[in-house]
Amino acid sequence: MRKVGWSIAAIVVVALLGFFVAPWAYGTFIAEDDAPAASVDTSGAQAATIDLGGAWIVTAGSAPNRTAAGYTVHEILRGADVTVVGSTDRVSGTATIDGQILTEAEVTVQVADVTTDNSQRDGQFRDRVMDSTTHPTATFVLTEPVDLASVPADGTLGSVTATGTLTLRGTDRPVIVDVDVLRTGDVLVASGSIPATWADWGVEPPNLGFVAVDDTGSVDFLVTLEKS
Q: Is the pLDDT assigned to residue 191 strictly greater than 60?
């Protein structure tokens, strides 16, 4: 009976440790990742040196406006809201501008390369959430022309609204996104954040019991373009 009692006590202790320590470990070593998504930085910007018209291609950019794309979500850990940002610089794309009208644009992101500050979270995102083996890319394709005439040529920030199709996990959905645009020197820099309810794209946010991911978030991007 004494051995049985000790065994039961040991099981209870292990269970309690799992109940308290697992959330603590997650919050301490995994959950902290609250860097904001990238947005256009106008420091050091200069007047535009080339016309808008022509074919453009997404490039790596340079600090502070390096090309990147990814996601922002909120994890709920025992009632505490933690912001998580994942991103990658594996972004490609093209755009065509006729005069001052953006007529075509497409941006492609390599989903498997999106990372946060923790490999365990990234593995969940890459395999269970996004199934990147089957759906290796996410894309945005412009579906309506955008007038860029209001974007200043003096190195200050402008804003336009773009309509397009966002493809996540093989599912296409129409989206509208406000885009900040900077003309500086011989490049264009554009950034935006697309609100997303993940279920609309067939994405199921993970739930580990003591921590859950909110069912809404955003798809974020910052791209630098040069004439091709």
A: yes
